[in-house]
Design brief:
It is an enzyme of class 1 (oxidoreductase). Keywords: NAD, Oxidoreductase. The longest helix is centred in the last third of the chain and has 20 residues. α1 packs parallel to α12. β4, α3 and β5 form a beta-alpha-beta unit. The protein has 2 domains: about 130 residues, Rossmann fold (3-Layer(aba) Sandwich), CATH 3.40.50.720; about 190 residues, NAD(P)-binding Rossmann-like Domain (Rossmann fold). A 7-stranded parallel β-sheet has the order 8-7-6-9-10-11-12, with helices on both faces. Strands 2-1-3-4-5-13 form a 6-stranded mixed β-sheet. The chain contains 12 helices and 13 strands. Helix content is about 35%, strand content about 15%.
Length: about 325
């Protein structure tokens, strides 16, 4: 059987091909799954997709008509999939429920320190042999307060690093994480966390209840010199509201690895095209903002675990087994 994998990055391709070698043929495409590309999957019972695939009703219908019966998404998040439609069409949907939380947590800290210590600006200057320190003043993290919104596996890993820095720890979640409490984390309501944290990092999933969890009111409640980091999902932040606050000169730094309108942009080369997204273009103009292209998970360790889980998900589907990774089970 040949499996069709959409949205495969150049670094991923040899890892995917090696993982499936001797099990199934795998055809890797660099294009993402959309309404336009879905017909390519015709005749493929199993399709694998990336986090930025568009698995709406139209795409799922097209896949089902073409003979697809199983979709193995190579990510933990699944807010891009219409699960109700998938169930109605009899499609099996599986995801990767776990991969190295340190990949994302470490990258979140990379963003935090990059904006705190003005690393991008400093690097750009020194490439021009400008070695002045003007505008590069940062702050020690030790003794300052970090607020972690979402203390699951990734939030815990982020907290562990913050504890190593010697920071005061504030947390917010629907349930307390015992490991974070052991580090000295104090769980507070969201309003108290926003008002007191010098650094805020987001580690919650994107759900209807968390859409724009950082909106106009929440941004206004934050310290003027706070640092905000998002390495989870772009929809957690109201980007237009964020731009409005940045225009007022607020925040010491903002590090974003995700953007709420990133589909059709991130993972693609748009360098020779006119910028169509005015909000993103405006965001890029602020000297205290660093934007990266949804790469927090992108380590050899995490990608290897994601691919291994995808292989297992396909094997489970073919064997008729139900695992914790299955979001929509096979039709009876």
């Amino acid at each position: 059987m040949e499996i069709l994998a959409f949205g495969v990055q150049a670094d991923e391709k040899p890892l995917i091909e090696k993982a499936f070698a001797g099990l199934h043929d795998i055809r890797c495409l660099d294009v993402f799954l959309t309404e336009d590309t879905a017909p390519i999957a015709a005749g493929h019972e199993v399709v694998s997709t990336s986090v930025n695939a568009s698995l709406n009703a139209q795409v799922l219908q097209s896949l089902a008509v073409g003979g697809t019966r199983m979709i193995a998404q190579r990510s933990t998040g699944f807010n891009n999939i219409d699960l109700d439609v998938a169930a109605r069409l009899g499609l099996t949907i599986a995801r990767v429920s776990y991969y190295s939380p340190y990949s994302v947590a470490e990258f979140a800290w990379t963003l935090a320190m990059a904006v705190n210590r003005r690393i991008v600006r400093a690097s750009n200057r020194t490439r021009d042999f400008d070695f002045r320190l003007d505008g590069l003043l940062g702050r020690d993290m030790r003794g300052r307060t970090v607020g972690v919104l979402g203390t699951g596996k990734i939030g815990e890993a982020f907290t562990r690093i913050a504890h190593g820095f010697g920071m005061n720890l504030l947390g917010w979640d629907v349930a307390q994480n015992a490991a974070c409490v052991e580090f000295g984390m104090k769980y507070v309501d969201k309003e108290e966390l926003l008002a007191n944290a010098d650094l805020i990092s987001l580690h919650v999933p994107l759900l209807p209840s968390t859409q724009h969890i950082i909106g106009r009111r929440e941004l206004a409640a934050m310290k003027d010199d706070a640092i905000l980091v998002n390495s989870s999902r772009g929809g957690l932040i109201d980007t237009d509201a964020l731009v409005g606050e940045l225009r007022k000169g607020r925040f010491a730094g903002v590090g974003l690895d995700v953007y709420e309108a990133e589909a059709g942009l991130f993972f693609l080369d748009k360098s020779l095209e006119a910028v169509q997204d005015d909000t993103l273009a405006r965001l890029m103009t602020f000297p205290n903002v660093v934007v990266t292209s949804h790469q927090a998970y992108y380590t050899e360790d995490a990608v290897g675990e994601i691919i291994a889980a995808t292989v297992d998900n396909v094997a489970a589907y073919l064997a008729g087994r139900h695992t914790e990774n299955v979001l929509v089970p096979a039709a009876p």
